[in-house]
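This entry is set out below.
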Amino acid sequence: MRNFSLIMLMLLITASSCKKDDGFVLAFGSCNNQNLPNPLWEPIMKHNPDLFIWGGDIIYSDTHDMKFMRSNYNRLKNDSAYVRFREKIKIMGVWDDHDYGLDDGGVHYSKKDSAQQLFLDFLDVDENSPRREQQGIYHSKVFRVGESSVKVLMLDTRYFRSDLKKDPSGKKRYVPTQKTETTILGEKQWTWLQNELENSSSQFNIIVSSIQFLSKEHGFETWGNMPHEVNKMMNLIKTSQARGVILLSGDRHIAEISKARIENSEIDLIDVTSSGMTHSYDSFTSEPNPYRVGNVISEKNFGILYFNIKKNQITIEIRGEENILFERYKANY
């Protein structure tokens, strides 16, 4: 009995040490096919995250049939491994194209309002939430960490996004447009984001975008397809003076860390991509990305961010099955 009590005491000490007043743990991932097994829930839980973020493509349901989409969400939501996961971990999320309902879809998808309600149902968003009435799924939440805080800003890169410019040569899927009237976020969401950043008192501000922000050479979906929107984001981050800004992205079925200095500033902006969770780009060979830090991970993966409030530092990790460590990078702010 004495040994049992000692063991229980040690477990309590260990558990409490994982939740310090100066630390916050965020896990995230994307590209999860509801019809495939997800081997990453157990490894993610080993890190005891304070929050898990879906980075898009929560399910694969390209459709105009909302009953079919609902059945796909329910298939995932009732999956036994995911049920255990969501019982223990706080969850937030954004959508990408396949849970939005249309491959590479944007503003013209006719079922986006119905799809939005199904997305919010999946995440158990309250029926009285403002997100039920607004156009688009963007929102934010502040997490207190001791006397400081971490702010998470979730972007909607689908609902308002203008049509992309196809590559006339056929060498790539898309190329950058010179039309400055095109948009990724739309006017209302840009105004919201500006207010959120300018009025943020948080030590860290995490911006979640379903598509990559810095990597733009590959020819698929990326913020780089609208260079004026990239410049707008860079300028906003600089002029808002929001602290500790970092971007999280998905979509690509690979993982990588990118870093770029914002022009006329001392701000190094980091974009951490983690994708995919159930299937990955395992035939990947290479692609250019002048901002890449470290290696491209083409195996199933998830991202982990460890926030150290006292040191004003984020340790970024990309991990995979069996909790294997692929990449680690420390960012100081």
About this structure: DSSP finds eight helices and 15 strands in the chain. Helices lie at 2-17, 41-45, 66-77, 80-88, 97-100, 112-122, 187-198, 227-240. The chain has one domain: 20-332.
